[in-house]
Write the structure tokens for this entry.
Amino acid sequence: MSRELQDKAKELLEKEEVAQVIGYGAGTRRSRARPIFITSPEEASQLIWTPACVNNLAVYLTRKETKVPGRVAITAKGCDARALFVLIQEKQIRREDLNIIGLACRGVLSKKALDQGKGDLDEETLSAKCKVCLVHTPVEFDFLVGEKIDSPEPSSDPYEVIADLESRSPEERWEYWQGELSRCIKCYACRQACPLCYCNRCITEKSIPQWIEKSPHARGNLAWNIIRAFHLTGRCVGCGECERACPMDIPLMLLNQKMAREVKEQFGYVAGMNYQMEPALATFDPKDHEDFIR
Amino acid sequence: MPHIYEPHLVKTEEIIEETPDIKTFRLVFSEEALAHNFSFKAGQFCQLSVFGEGEATFCIASSPTRKGYIECSFKRVGKVTQSLHDREVGDTLGFRGPYGNWFPLEEMKGKNLIFVGGGIGLAPLRSLIWNCLDTRGDFAEIMILYGARSIADLVYKAELREWESRSDVKLVRTVDPGGEDETWDGHIGFVPAILEKISPSPEKAILITCGPPIMIKFVLQATDKLGFLPEQVITTLEMKMKCGLGKCGRCNIGNIYVCKDGPVFTYQQILSLPAEF
Amino acid sequence: MKEKILSIKNRDKLIQGLREKGFRVYGPRESEGIILFGEIQSSSDLPPQYTNSAHSIKEFFLPPHEPLLSYEVRKEGIKTHPLDQYPIPSVLYGVRPCDAAYLPIIDKVFAWEEKDELYLARREKTLVICLACEEPDEACFCASLGYSPTGKEGCDIALTPLDDKRLFAEFVSEKGERLLAEFPDLWEEIRPDDEKRRAEVEKEARGKIRRQVEMEGIKKWLDEHFEDPLWEEISRRCIGCGACYYLCPTCHCFDIVDEGNLWRGIRRRIWDTCSFGHFTQMPAHQPRGSQDRRYRQRIMHKFKYYVDRFGPIACVGCGRCIEVCPVGIDLTEILAKIKERVTASAKD
């Protein structure tokens, strides 16, 4: 499969259909992969597609250091492609500027598995997000590496873990989050890894007034993590990069998935499945749940 | 036991509105002992704080020869300066300092001094100017070239008039093209251009400059053209700072810490700094 | 340097004894597969096996957030109250030599001219008992920087396991030696073969380090290549988070913030990093406006600026930056790339 990918990338660059290919290359640690940026056909042989290709490369499309003039090809798993579609919806990139090299995906390795140096995909090593994936094949692509895979019924309820938390009392939940968030050090790896956190000036960087305290104490951590979950509501595509990037192992996806469920239940909307749709929280529909605005 | 991050308290004794966005505060230490004995050298800076908003770096704009108070001038550009602008006479601020190095007064003695300032950049120069004027006999000729975007943006207007009226100082004023009005009797042109026009002699001279980064850049180039050696040209640089004492790392640029090795630098030293500046 | 043997049984008694004397004892603790330093009640709280803690011991000397003073506006003006800074005497047990080695390096900046008593008081009141590393991790490269899995830099007492019952104890500092006097019965005399065995343990551990960096010539290259296409190349995938900086023991930059309102609040010191644009953002000027310049600052500060000013390289080879980077940036790879250029230009 890596071969199919390399050939396609080489072709795109040779024909000058794209100025750059963003994909995965081998990392320096056992079984790892990492983002690479290819601008010449000879470099295409560096591209790989393995269960270690965990990064969501869409994050590089809004960073000025990795933008190049012209069209860009980007390898995208189903979850990555969802992020691409939200970016298109939000007018951060144009569909015609992208060549989406879709990756038919059976899942990627979990952070734990990678830390343990494991390279083979199985029930144990599969990332939690993959167990509830709806997009084994990206919803839209210009080229597909591998055979189309139908998304099977998720083997577990995506909101199972949240249901467990919800069954606890507010005091228990508060304690749980105080505990988890106490480890936050405000490194903003979650924000930087997220393809949809692309604000030139994040709310934490606004100082008049300082809306979100910068200190990594309980109050500051709560403020930051909650505001991020809110700002991603209706936009988060569940790629899990925030949780994977977090050096303190905070289960950030719980917050994002909870908000995603709320949006689904209230607006029947799931982010990143159809970029022709208007974003749920940026649109008013007379049939909306809230009736205070009519 | 006080630690190095603990500020002294100062009271605002007087507030002068220099321009629509620049104010000068005259500050007096709340602690008796400091009020009388506080000493510093021209060129040094301090960290002023508005409790609840934060700290920011300001050069001490008054002369060390004048005891009993210090003065700082600042432009409203951000959180702390905005808050400072909202302060009233009698308000208490925090003060940490003096930090940094200072203008090399000893080496300047007996020489012709040429001060070149732009906008709020006159503030650090003012400390040195008054220091020199208060010990006038130590120096040969003194010229002050000062300009701003427009007449309204000139700072220390009263002192400009005072310097103008003195016979032992030559004052040259300029505003950027478009910044004049029909009453303006000074030059019209950017400061580096006027400097070249006046073409002061580098013979036994020291040129001290401060202003917006772009102005400094062109002034330094102008000194090259006029035949000044880099050792004869001194400037004071701005860099984002926090602790002011070499710990927090914020002002580290190239091999230097602006709070420790600066803010006063010779052109010679700047040439050896990476282009990061 | 005094050398004794500490049996595992006596090690347990030592921990108890230190607690009884009022020391807070911290050691590596495992929770859901992650090792972090936490308070331990006895040595049974220690994990049977571990490579290193996920986070360095930096937070014990420079906490992620620390109150500097509180302020309160009263009728007579503002009253500032320096907050009580006297740290409780603590013992850090089981610190790996690479982590302890960071202390003498960073002491220099906190003792530079104005003494940062907040950091220095913690240093004085904390006893660091190192435990040698027998199974270096994949990302470790302490040896390339002149350190060792059984090293002693920054330790007050350095322990090397000779086998599963006996630890070879070296008393590196006066602070460490005090424990000889305070717990006279816990230390045994060394046996004739112990030093040899200790050397064997070191050799074995060194042999297991997989990463090797040739440092010769790198400093000179950095002196001469402030501008170089390499910076953009190595930092392209960097997403600009603070993970490697915050987990790095030698990274020490901080911010000072006021939290509260105009009447009452606390001024704090908090971790900050040159990775963020705001670090150098000024109204009129931004010297490091792109990630490649900011990444260059990281490398330059650690391998050149700190060396020029204070002497040692501000890196101990603990490998956390490599482990934690979400996009696979590898410091040893970067140093190797620089070395390649050094070698190439030497040939010219």
In short: The mean pLDDT of chain A is 93. Residues 252-267 of chain A form the longest helix (16 residues). Strands of chain A lie at 20-26, 33-38, 72-76, 98-103, 143-145. Chain A touches chain C at residues 27-30, 32-37, 55, 59-60, 63-66, 112, 115, 117, 185-189, 191-193, 205, 210, 213-217, 220, 241, 244-245, 247, 249 (CB under 8 Å).
